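Researcher: Structure prediction, please.
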Amino acid sequence: MSYRTKADEVAYQRDRARGRARYMPAEPVRRKLQHFLDADVPVRALSRSSGLSAPALRAIVDGDRDVVQRRTAEHVSRMTLAGVYEQQQSGHVPKVGAARRVQALLAMGWTRDHITEAGATSLPRVLSGPGNLITLEKWREIKDVYDQLSMAPGPSPETKGHARSRGYAPPLAWDDSTIDNPHARPHIDVPVAAGAETIDMVAVDRAIARTGAATNLTPAERIEVVRGMAAGGASDPQIGQHLDVVDRTILRTRHRHDIPTLRRAQPDRDEPDWDCLDARTITAAAGNRSAGPDKTTTTSVPDRPADSAIGR
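Model: Predicted structure follows.
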């Protein structure tokens, strides 16, 4: 048997003398690696953090390997999303963890101004900006501020009350190993506000942006999806298709929770479109003037009720 280095040979002899297995089942490693991939971790970043080549990583995830080296299994078992991100030198990472950290600080009473002064900038873009990725530098910036402020209450009861009323989960609702995972949920036994249910607004925003992402939402979070999509101008049928329910369900949800719609109501088919008729009358009059007195055309317009007249 040949070894790549003298250290490998020494490690093998030591494990053999202690009766320690050199290889372990690959299934726990496969599940952990798949967990990272499901959290949108790039293969290159996961390969660098795990110490596996990209082909070897893919072979484990695809189930082509039944065993892996024990040290690989032990190393992968200790990996976290935050650790994977911290080992990257540059690039982009999912912004879900950064948004949750900002929300948690707001729930502690730290205002946006305080968070910005502590070193985290561009908070509106992180909380509600388009896209699901942020730069690695921005993620580290917010994580450093979160680590600095999350262990002490903030100075603003108003900010704390507003954040809790929106269901923002405080720091104690998250584990460091799960806060960056888009599929993780906050601990429901952590109190938020009296009568308020914990709402993961990052999951809500993700469900609004992606069809089929609302499967694991709580009822309160689905209501927020309806609220957000209605505010964006989506119709009840469009929202229903997005959430895989009939549009009557969306209508009842909006009425029950006083959610307005920005969709312009369609005119009654039995009621004349007075604006359109006005436009036709003006167009016909202009045509009569250009055609001369012998080619005058007549456009019949019904009597317009007084309450539908346009104020000039």
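Model: The first helix runs from residue 6 to 18.
Researcher: Thanks, that helps.
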